[in-house]
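Help wanted!
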Amino acid sequence: MNDAKLLAGSDACVFGALAAGVRFFAGYPITPSSEIANLFARELPKLGGKFMQMEDEIASMGAVIGASCAGLKAITATSGPGFSLKQENIGFAAEAEIPCVIINVMRYGPSTGLPTTSSQGDFMQTRWGTHGDHAIIVIAPYTAREAYRETGRAVNLSERYRIPVIILLDEILSHLRERVEFKEEDIVTVIDRKGPVPGTPYLPYEDTDDMIPPFAGFGDGYRYHITGLIHDKTGFPTSDPGTIDRVMRRMNGKLDYYRDKIVRVKYVDVDNADVLIVAFGSVARSAEEVVRSMKKAGKRVGLLRPVTLWPFPDREIREAAAGKRAVIVPEMNLGQMVREVERAVAGTVPIHPLNRIDGGLITPHEISDLIEELL
Amino acid sequence: MDAIHRKYLRMDKLPHIWCPGCGNGIIMGSFIRAIDRLGYDQDSVAAVSGIGCSGRITGYMDFNTLHTTHGRALAFATGLKMAKPGLKVFVFMGDGDATAIGGNHLIHACRRNIDMTAIIFNNHIYGMTGGQYSPTTPRDAYATTAPYGTMDPHFDIAKLCVGAGASYVARGTSYHAKMLTDLIVEGAEHKGFSVIEIITHCPVNFGRRNELETPVDMLLWQKDHALRMAKAAKMTDDELKDRFVIGRIHRADIPEYVEEYDRLIEMVRKGDTDRG
Ligand SMILES: Cc1ncc(C[n+]2csc(CCOP(=O)(O)OP(=O)(O)O)c2C)c(N)n1
Ligand code: SF4
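Answered by r_m:
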């Protein structure tokens, strides 16, 4: 664990997933995510796992869900246009509560956009990209080191809570090769999904106290039905309003119930700061630099970096923002996360979006210039 | 209801949602008889389906059942079989499901040759959504979206699958129910990707609009238009017009994908490769 490695964010995701026990990948090439598929293709067979290049992203998502139904830990990787294609089957995974991880390396959009250019335009797409209310978790690492650990965590969260989990990278992070020194806290543990209790009748969507129904793999001797139709605890379709309400509240309620175990935020010099920056992904690297350089100049700036984007860390942001002169939200889009920050802060502190949509990374200078103006 | 029904159907889920006279029930009957004859342990059978009237079949049968999204059943089944090769995987799709929205998955599943059996209910119409034309609706037939007759040329599913590389292709009908059981058995026993296209009847959304007033008319139409391969071979193109061949259409012995992948794993693990 303590030897230094040169890793790109994409490599780190792959090794983190493998460390967490992922043994199936299905995907379709798309810039800037293709390196992830390439590396899985090389590494999976070494571990007895399987890699499949499917005919499109829809099929990739379907194959991942199919593999997961058989009990394998399964993952896919894509970028914006491909994520759009996966949306229907992501909804299936959410509805049927099938563990799976989707890596989305954001590129500039909409449409073909700027394929090799970074963006944070999928902040909302990853949360709301399928029809209907659904539980989903989105995690955004900001270094290769963190990408390793967080992809491992994504696999574990998905297996434990039976919720699809998205790893959201941007093009810069995915391609940036950096020296990574893994420490004790980076070790990825392997967490398996909860199975049925032998000797007791199996209810595939049982309303257990922990809100997570036990998962039986296909072929393990529990014959049951999985469907994207709204189903009762037996797994079969229902149209009973009371049952529908109960089942859908449980399914979506898992996010609230386990919120504190899912949400992860990082703070840099927040407590005594006059100005708070809220940023994620590569932009958070620029923001960290701003905190450092302005501190040298005697200015008190703090950074709150959501690692978990969804569920959105409203409470943490509200608390961190309290009493600040301003909150700055730099994003490589026209203002997506800032809406959530506004909702969290609820008018108590002035909020300043900083948006860049020319394909370039928001630089430390752009952020510090805005702060100078405000101070 | 005899012992076979009680063994393989989820009796508490009946009656099914299909219209009276629909061909889907006949196909389900042929299928469970095939499983019985194959002697497969129910725990080892996975039945995967898409969306449509046909897709509902998985809810009624007592196997590991997966009711997926419209057109994508083969994609789910691919992951399932790759992850657990011991499963006997059967995939149930409608004609729209398999050849319109799922057409891309169908041709690629044929090409890959994973050991599973695709069962396509070709009733020449979108049943569930109320009788819109599908890629297999014959020219000039009426549909809710073709009030003046369909003008789109149609697919020959069996030919399409042979062309795309499926290693076993057969066509049956809901009229020839015994033969259908034989074909499903043969397809399941074939190592590789097998397709059984079933010409079946949707009296409510196809027959009524196309001068086949009753389910019986539709079954008789199948009887009159179906031909065995041997007989068809002796007929002219003109005589074959509007008729279709039933029975095994194609069989080839080509490498099966899951076994090939296992060989790849073995090779990589032995370091028996000068690549990567
Ligand atoms: C993505 C998507 N598009 C459209 C539909 C609506 N839809 C449900 S079933 C169906 C077609 C059914 O026809 P077919 O596949 O031939 O099966 P059948 O009902 O005749 O068995 C359609 C279009 C859907 N469920 N999902
Ligand atoms: S609409 Fe047609 S295919 Fe669907 S159940 Fe009725 S008869 Fe069968």
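OP: Thanks! One thing I noticed: The interface with chain B takes residues 24, 26, 42, 45-46, 48, 50, 52, 54-56, 58-72, 74, 88-89, 92, 217-221, 223-229, 236-237 of chain A (CB under 8 Å).
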